[in-house]
Design goal:
Layout (H helix, E strand, L loop, with lengths): L1 H13 L3 E5 L2 E8 L20 E5 L4 E5 L7 E4 L3 E7 L3 E2 L5 E5 L5 E8 L2
Antiparallel strand pairs: 1-2, 1-9, 2-3, 3-4, 5-6, 6-7, 6-8, 8-9
Length: 117
């Protein structure tokens, strides 16, 4: 498991990710395709491979969330955390993505995020 963490840390260092301010906390975001195990940087959010994932890196936590296959959405989730560039309610939000945490009691904790210029 540590080996995988080291590999993903190296991938983050090689590419310069986009950064977002989520309620005063900086989060580095990288979207990668991985259909063939190449971990290529995603160039087009509307055309992601089935194995795509997002890496969210902040001081508090590092998350790797797989692509959700919900029709019409560009959403990544592990069932607890969610990062979404497009959903069926608000549409495409590349500069203000949805970042949320599902709580055990069924509630959703939302974080307001804005892309850094």
């Amino acid at each position: 498991m540590n080996f995988i963490s080291i590999v993903f840390s190296l991938i983050l260092m090689i590419q310069y990710p986009s950064t977002f301010n989520c309620e005063g906390k900086q989060i580095a975001v990288v979207v990668r395709n991985n259909q063939n195990g190449d971990y290529s940087l995603a160039q087009d959010l509307e055309n992601l491979d089935k194995g795509s994932f997002v890496l969210l890196d902040s001081v508090e936590r590092r998350l790797m969330l797989p692509l959700s296959f919900k029709a019409g959405e560009i959403t990544f989730t592990d069932g607890k955390w969610l990062w979404s560039f497009k959903d069926n309610v608000k549409g495409l939000r590349v500069d203000q993505p949805r970042y949320a945490k599902y709580l055990p009691d069924g509630k959703i904790e939302e974080y307001c995020c804005q892309r850094n210029s």
